Amino acid sequence: MSEAENVQRAATIAVLVENEAGVLARVIGLFSGRGYNIDSLTVAPVDETGRISRITVVTTGTEMVIEQIKAQLDRLVPVHKVSDLTLEGPHLVRELALIKVVGKGDNRIEALRLADAFRARVVDASTESFVFEMTGSADKIDAFCALMRPIGLVEVSRTGAVAIARGPRGLN
Amino acid sequence: MSAATKPASTADALTMSGAEVVLRALKDNGVDVIFGYPGGAVLPIYDALFQQNAIRHILVRHEQAAVHAAEGYARSTGKVGCVLVTSGPGATNAVTGLVDALMDSIPVVCLTGQVPTHLIGNDAFQEADTTGITRPATKHNYLVKKSGDLARVVHEAFYVAKSGRPGPVVVDLPKDILINKAPYTEPPTTEHRTYRPQTEPDAEQIRKAVKLLKAAKRPVVYAGGGVINSGPEASRLLADFVHMTGFPCTNTLMGLGAFPASDPQFLGMLGMHGTYEANLVMHGCDVMLNIGARFDDRVTGRLNAFAPDSKKIHADIDPSSINKNVPVDVPIVGDAARVLAALIEAWKSEDAPQDKPALTAWWRQIDEWRARDCLRYRQEGRIIKPQHAVKRLYEITKELGRETFITTEVGQHQMWAAQYFGFQKPNHWMTSGGLGTMGYGLPAAMGVQIAHPDALVIDIAGEASILMNIQEMGTLAQYRLPVKVFILNNEYMGMVRQWQELLHGGRYSESYSAALPDFVKLAESFHAVGMRAEGADDLDRVIREMIAIDKPVIADICVAKDENCFPMIPSGAAHNEMILGEDQEGGVKGVTDEGKVLV
């Protein structure tokens, strides 16, 4: 196999599925059973009737593996549509994080200053803690957490990525 | 709404129990036979079965056998096989059969009983998480939690089992759903909401394929089980295409019978125990047309040395089979028959001439390879060579001219059957290819015999494999199924022994079949006929007698104990590194540790 074929890439894949029992287990079982990576996975119903859910999965693999992942997802019976957002063009990726920072004195001030720079919002506060809410790319959240760590980061809760293509075209 | 304006189906529905709805749905999906085993959770279905005549129930002796029987039935008829088992152990026993059907793309619908909905998750008696356990063992599965979904789900199960790449589907049925009244709806005529596999090939890809094929100097057609799954028309079209192009054709283990074995353009089976000529043609080809096969590791050998100088065209109904193991140049998604029909049309209308002189030279080369006569063996003295036993079985059945179906267990005997029994037609060869399930052959033969009561059905078996589902001799007796079990008895798990000899220094760890039963007496105790051939001079007589008897028979054929199955591509080797029978002295050279880790 040539060098080029061994190059790994990340892929953000959107999957529209029937919102039926076990559908998430099918998708996750496919990844674990066939040894594919899951970097993050989110799922929620997205239509007005609640019949259709959208799964956003971020994975890494060679081009051949990513093509396999898409083909394997597409042949699951409850799957409507599979879309490789990374391949298909410009798209937005966002993740939401809740970040708890504990500290007193200068650390509190520093935490607020950094939060302001990163456009994180304070959604809970006590005399010795803040919970920040921030939305952004995974990189931005990573960077914010890294800065908060020496100041008093105690807990992080993240959604994993959700993504959508830019422009007028819809996935359905 | 007044009674007069109510849809008729709703009015009927309220008179039917869930169990009756299930049976009605089976009938409306063409089921006439169901293989099963009763138990607490499915008692309502058994009660409904008792009160009708449309569906015949065959009582097996183990749930695994029910699934293999349904596979044999499906593979030999092209219909969906149907299974009924109870909850808990009934379902878990069926799992091996389900995975077998999944790996070999056999359409099977398996109904499993389940504890009542209010007890699910309570660790109730004979409860198992059947949909959880069978999720990776099936093409799809369902748990019916509402009576209103019941009919739709059963119809959908049949649609999913047989559409696209076929496979097993489980429908898990809680007992309250079976007892409560449920509405019946007819099978839908509208498209499925999500599952609509592509069957019609893309015209542009067909054009590209034909362009490559016309210019080919060293072509090969490599056809697999997908051609058989597509139906007999696909096999006819395959023969037409191969004849009109003049190309050589090889079949996978699952594809045997898709192209007639007696045809001069047939190279035999390819792969690990394929013929010398088939494997060298694969290695040396410049254009390969794979139709309905999946580049299985048994076929490709070492991937980076597989058909190194070839352009590859791969037609498959399952897009996930394409570019999975082997990158291809022209992928074609579609049903084998439609693809072949399109290829034939495009071949006729493509003006570019074929490179005939190159093709003639290619056939000259192939004839040289054929001259090695790689399946040659020497039957000397009284000890029966297993190859000879299969060959004589083939010749005698051919001479008798009866419609003959062959099933096998798994191991050396399976490979010898594939090598020495010439299959002329599709749907007459059932073997466990992907999963390699010992114990497959006897129940599969049972299913075939149910579907074809007047045909000759033979399970070519090994003495170790046959014991894995030997209890089905009871089913044969009960339904008077005249299945013939033809045991090549070498008193070893032969393929294990062969690998131990060739790859593990001759340390025969646990591969000797100790304390074997007396198969003649075993047959008699199951109301069957037992016979034995101890020497080559007995062989023909035993085969003829076995076939003549209109009862189940076990023929115990005592064969050479240390015979190995050749040709063989050792694991991790390439097609052109195959070992032939005459080279076997001195063991196998060149198997690396890297190769040894492969199965």
UniProtKB/TrEMBL annotation, chain A:
Domain (ACT) ranges: 12-87
Q: Which GO terms describe its molecular function?
A: acetolactate synthase activity; acetolactate synthase regulator activity
**One GO cellular component term:** cytosol
Q: Name one Pfam family in it.
A: ALS_ss_C
State which Enzyme Commission number(s) the record gives: 2.2.1.6
Pathway, according to UniProt? Amino-acid biosynthesis; L-isoleucine biosynthesis; L-isoleucine from 2-oxobutanoate: step 1/4; Amino-acid biosynthesis; L-valine biosynthesis; L-valine from pyruvate: step 1/4
- Asked if Transferase is a keyword of the record, the answer is yes
What SUPFAM superfamilies does the annotation carry? ACT-like
- Record-linked InterPro entries: Acetalactate_synth_ssu (IPR004789), Acetolactate_synth/TF_NikR_C (IPR027271), Acetolactate_synth_ssu_C (IPR019455), ACT-like_dom_sf (IPR045865), ACT_dom (IPR002912), AHAS_ACT (IPR039557), AHAS_small-like_ACT (IPR054480)
| Taxonomic superkingdom | Bacteria
Q: One GO BP annotation here?
A: isoleucine biosynthetic process
Keywords in alphabetical order:
Amino-acid biosynthesis, Branched-chain amino acid biosynthesis, Transferase
Catalyzed reactions: 2 pyruvate + H(+) = (2S)-2-acetolactate + CO2
**The family this protein is said to belong to:** Belongs to the acetolactate synthase small subunit family.
Biological role: Catalyzes the conversion of 2 pyruvate molecules into acetolactate in the first common step of the biosynthetic pathway of the branched-amino acids such as leucine, isoleucine, and valine.
Assembly and interaction partners: Dimer of large and small chains.
State the protein's name: Acetolactate synthase small subunit
From TrEMBL, chain B:
The record's annotation in CDD domains points to: TPP_AHAS (cd02015), TPP_PYR_POX_like (cd07035)
User: According to the lineage, what is the superkingdom?
Assistant: Bacteria
Biological processes, Gene Ontology terms: isoleucine biosynthetic process; L-valine biosynthetic process
Protein keywords: Amino-acid biosynthesis, Branched-chain amino acid biosynthesis, Magnesium, Metal-binding, Thiamine pyrophosphate, Transferase
**Gene3D superfamilies xrefs:** 3.40.50.970, TPP-binding domain (3.40.50.1220)
This protein's cofactor list reads: thiamine diphosphate; Mg(2+)
According to the record, the residues making up region (Disordered) are: 182-202
Where is each Thiamine pyrophosphate enzyme central domain found?
Answer: 206-343
Per the record, what are the reactions this protein catalyses?
2 pyruvate + H(+) = (2S)-2-acetolactate + CO2
Q: Where is the Thiamine pyrophosphate enzyme N-terminal TPP-binding domain?
A: 16-131
Reported EC number(s) for this entry are 2.2.1.6
| Keyword Metal-binding among UniProt keywords | yes
Q: In which pathway does it act?
A: Amino-acid biosynthesis; L-valine biosynthesis; L-valine from pyruvate: step 1/4; Amino-acid biosynthesis; L-isoleucine biosynthesis; L-isoleucine from 2-oxobutanoate: step 1/4
This entry's comment on the bound cofactor is:
Binds 1 thiamine pyrophosphate per subunit.
Which protein family is it in? Belongs to the TPP enzyme family.
Task: Report the protein name in the record.
Answer: Acetolactate synthase
Native source species: Neoroseomonas soli
